[in-house]
Amino acid sequence: MEKLVIEGGIPLQGEVKISGAKNAALPLMAATLLCAGKHILRNVPDLRDTRTLIRLLENLGAVVERKGDSLHIDTTVLEHGEASYQLVKTMRASVLVLGPLLARLGKTRVSLPGGCAIGERPVNFHTDGLRQLGAVCTIKEGYIEAEAERLHGATIYFDIPSVTGTENLLMAATLAKGMTVLKNAAREPEVGNLVDMLNAMGAKISGCGTDVLTIEGVAALHPADCRIIADRIEAGTYLLAIAATGGSGRVTGCCPADLPSLVEKLRYAGLKITEEADTLAISWPGQQQTLLGVDIKTAPFPGYPTDLQAQFMALMTLCDGQSTVHETIFENRFMHVAELRRMGAKIKVDGRFAVVSGQGMTGLRGAPVMATDLRASSSLVIAGLAATGRTDISRIYHLERGYENLVEKLTGLGARVWKEQE
Ligand code: EPU
């Protein structure tokens, strides 16, 4: 197994280009299952998670070819409609094939994802929603079994906006008979990317970017050529890494409008953030590099993203004074705290609340730490870059799920970072 070694304390400088968004690529790849034909997806990041979904598509009978940053996906022949436990257990987003397979084949069997490192993560919104669309949906031997000759439209209300729940029901409803209305739907930019792709395939969806999505079912869809949006979580991670090291730089190829809450919080902390068309530039307004404590409450878009909570906590340990975090989305998303403490951070946790007593920009020391999930791991990378001395992060396969060319990108910003065998 590989580990990541960081010799910290170097201010990051320069420019980093953001890749396509993992959490947009996955639903768009699943959407290619909705109709037979040759689809092209552009700006698809080459990550462990996208490779897992390619394996799943291939297992279903699709032919997938990567050409540069594009994926050519031929879904003309589907041999079966089953997503096995073997594939779903390695990536719970595999559940995204449920809606498209049911809509196209009238029958599917998808392994029920288990809990994960950040919480229980049920899929009841997905299954209840499909039932409202007319499917017979049961859980048998660890699998979701769903069947419907043809789905029909329905009005579906989400108790909590769910990203993949919205995506699964959107895809299923495109081919349903009649009108579907999704209320309190997720407004994340990745959902918007999926709506654009589905409309390019011939679907009739309105309300993009709002929490009410209306889908007028169509009889058939056709393949599309679509571009994956920039990864806002990757962009935010690099902004936080540059800030934590006292550096300055430009994060290019991103969409500033997708990171409204992070930009405001960084400004509040005392950083200068300049928004350009596809670039966020970060610098320090004066000579002094000190940061104010910040309070963060995670929330569905446009609120502060839970996927950037752990990374901001690394920065909070370097602020002057106290910061707080209220994690409202997942019940167990503080796994990074114990590891940050090993690097000298002072953090108290009570349920879904954390209080961070910042110790200034020189507050962290390198240490051996362990990655526990994707975003927790990236917070340890930020802490390692900011700390004095050497940090060894084990279990970096978590990082490889979501950060394309991490070592190369950080090296390009001047960091001393490399992989080693454990
Ligand atoms: N929820 C339910 N029932 C459901 C579905 C969700 O109660 O059937 C609850 C969840 O437990 C959670 C809340 O609803 O409390 C929101 O969860 P959501 O369904 O939005 O999460 P998700 O769709 O499973 C996606 C991202 C996550 C990201 C969350 C929240 C993908 C592939 N995954 O997950 O990304 O944290 O939305 O924004 O889009 C990551 O990239 O590291 C990651 C975990």
Task: Write structural notes for this entry.
There is one protein chain. The protein is an alpha/beta fold and 422 residues long. The mean pLDDT is 97. The relative contact order is 0.16. Helix 1 packs parallel to helix 2 (48-60), helix 6 (163-174) packs parallel to helix 7 (189-200) and helix 8 packs parallel to helix 10 (309-316). It has a four-stranded mixed β-sheet with strand order 22-23-1-24, covered by helices on one side. The protein has a four-stranded mixed β-sheet with strand order 2-15-17-16. It contains 14 helices and 24 strands. Helix 6 links the parallel strand 10 (155-157) and strand 11 (179-183). Bound molecules: uridine-diphosphate-2(N-acetylglucosaminyl) butyric acid. The site of uridine-diphosphate-2(N-acetylglucosaminyl) butyric acid has 23 residues, from helix 1, helix 5, helix 6 and helix 12.
Short account of what is shown:
With 422 residues, this protein is of the alpha/beta class. Helix content is 31%, strand content 27%.
List the defining traits of the structure above.
four-stranded mixed β-sheet, 422 residues, 27% strand, alpha/beta, binds uridine-diphosphate-2(N-acetylglucosaminyl) butyric acid, elongated
